[in-house]
């Protein structure tokens, strides 16, 4: 028999307990004790950024809890997040809001994220506090790290890119926070003074890079750089850069040094893909005492049938190369472009040599370039093929899984904020959400 809802009058009184409505196995219930311990110390660090007079502000812990909820469940728009907290009982319970408590307005988030939150670097401190909680739980071993970068599309149209000299930065529509940050970065960044300006730049988000990495469409984007501990794939550091390989490799050095300085963690080995196998970066890794489990970026191999550099034997004691015919190639020791030393053969040896058509058919003598950090490249080549290297190559997939999880489950594929500082805020919150979920899984 078909049932029918009976009773047309509601009850006058309800006995409602919000605590009982959140299941024991709910993610936010497992995250709550962790977040509670982490936010206790951050409250004191935020106090200097609030005025001593005036009306009491909204509790900063409430806004941080709401942001954690948003990045855990892929709701990164403040307006939508406030609506979800208003309706979802578990969100209200995690944010310590009762049924009658008012949810903050979405504009409050904008004021705090671009104001006191950014000035206090609170998201960086929140991330580091979660990493310390993972260390206390024994999730970080510190023996092996893996690094990689993923492209996140910037909040800028790929159809409106212009050359840098075509943009009038003094126009009223260009007086934005992202443009001011970009122009101030040009004045302060003296280390990249010799680098050329990009050919295409976004007028709305000039800090982003014009890129077509990872076989994607050409777009403006940022590089999300993760440095993870291989043991449990805990993110030990995160850095935001323009989506350029040069900036991403350089950010790895920054992350490793900062991790050692903040957490006293220094890996014995680092796993990465071929993009990190440059001679300069490998030289820095070997000098820092870190074994490079990285494929060497080989650019000297030839495919025209002539001898490549690998066909020449280097004598370290005599500091010379030996060609396949046994002749010596010597150098003056001059460093070209700050990174390459040239070894040249004698014209008297190359002229009558029977192997000249396969060695240097178009020039009188053969010259072989050798990187200044070629010794570090040789160390990386020696590691390749070992069982330890094969294990690191398999474990390196865990950092790629982090990116896949972030884009699939957290719906993070396009930036919400503009500017490099906005990218840092978003990436820190994304890493916080992922580390919290790893920690909650371990506690369960």
Structural write-up:
By secondary structure, the protein is α+β, with helices and mostly antiparallel strands. 41% of the residues lie in helices and 13% in strands. It is built from 16 helices and twelve strands. Strand 8 and strand 9 form a beta hairpin. The radius of gyration is 28 Å and the shape is elongated. The chain starts with 26 loop residues before the first helix and ends with a helix.
Describe how the helices and strands are arranged.
Elements: H1 27-46, H2 60-72, H3 78-87, H4 89-94, H5 106-113, H6 116-120, H7 122-136, E1 144-153, H8 177-188, E2 209-211, E3 219-229, E4 234-242, H9 245-263, E5 269-271, H10 279-287, E6 291-293, E7 313-315, E8 320-322, E9 328-329, E10 335-336, E11 340-344, H11 347-350, H12 356-359, E12 367-371, H13 374-383, H14 387-395, H15 397-408, H16 419-443
Parallel strand pairs: 1-5, 5-6
Antiparallel strand pairs: 1-3, 2-3, 3-4, 7-8, 8-9, 10-11, 11-12
Helix pairs in contact: 1-2, 1-7, 1-16, 2-3, 2-16, 3-5, 7-16, 8-16, 10-13
Mean pLDDT: 86
* Total beta strands: 12
**Strand content range:** 5-15%
**Helical proportion, percent range:** 40-55%
Number of helices: 16
| Sequence stretches where pLDDT stays below 50 over 5 or more residues | none
Structural class label: alpha+beta
User: C-alpha Rg, in Å?
Assistant: 28 Å
């Amino acid at each position: 028999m078909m049932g029918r809802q009976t009773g047309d009058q509601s009850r006058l009184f309800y006995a409602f307990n919000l605590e009982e409505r959140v299941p024991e196995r709910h993610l936010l219930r497992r995250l709550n004790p962790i977040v509670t311990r982490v936010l206790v110390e951050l409250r004191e660090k935020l106090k200097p950024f609030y005025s001593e007079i005036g009306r009491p502000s909204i509790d900063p812990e409430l806004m941080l809890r709401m942001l954690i909820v948003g990045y855990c469940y892929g709701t990164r728009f403040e307006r939508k997040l406030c609506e979800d907290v208003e309706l979802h009982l578990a969100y209200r319970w995690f944010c310590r809001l009762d049924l009658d408590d008012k949810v903050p307005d979405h504009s409050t988030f904008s004021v705090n994220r671009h104001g006191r939150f950014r000035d206090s670097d609170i998201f960086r401190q929140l991330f580091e506090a979660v990493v310390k909680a993972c260390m206390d739980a024994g999730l970080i071993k510190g023996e092996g790290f893996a690094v990689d970068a993923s492209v996140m599309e910037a909040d800028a149209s790929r159809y409106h890119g212009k050359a840098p000299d075509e943009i009038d930065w003094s126009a009223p529509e260009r007086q934005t926070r992202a443009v001011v940050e970009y122009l101030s970065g040009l004045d302060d960044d003296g280390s990249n003074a010799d680098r050329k300006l990009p050919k295409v730049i976004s007028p709305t988000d000039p800090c982003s890079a014009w890129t077509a990495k990872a076989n994607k469409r050409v777009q403006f984007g940022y590089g999300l750089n993760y440095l993870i501990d291989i043991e449990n794939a805990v993110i030990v550091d995160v850095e935001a850069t323009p989506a350029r390989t040069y900036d991403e490799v350089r950010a790895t050095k920054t992350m490793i040094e900062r991790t050692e300085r903040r957490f006293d963690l220094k890996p014995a080995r680092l796993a990465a893909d071929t993009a990190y196998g440059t001679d300069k970066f490998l030289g820095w890794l070997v000098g820092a005492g870190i074994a490079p489990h990285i494929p060497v970026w080989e650019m000297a191999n030839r495919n025209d049938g002539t001898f490549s550099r690998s066909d020449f034997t280097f004598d370290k004691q005599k500091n010379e190369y030996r060609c396949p015919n046994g002749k010596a190639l010597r150098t003056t020791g001059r460093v070209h472009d700050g990174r390459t030393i040239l070894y040249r053969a004698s014209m008297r040896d190359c002229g009558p040599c029977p192997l000249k058509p396969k060695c240097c058919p178009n020039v009188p003598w053969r010259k072989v370039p050798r990187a200044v950090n070629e010794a570090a490249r040789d160390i990386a080549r020696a590691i390749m093929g070992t069982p330890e290297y094969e294990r690191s190559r398999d474990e390196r997939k865990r950092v790629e899984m982090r990116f896949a999880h972030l884009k699939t489950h957290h719906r993070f594929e396009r930036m919400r904020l503009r500017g490099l500082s906005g990218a840092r805020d978003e990436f820190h919150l994304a890493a916080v959400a992922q580390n919290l979920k790893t920690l909650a899984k371990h506690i369960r």
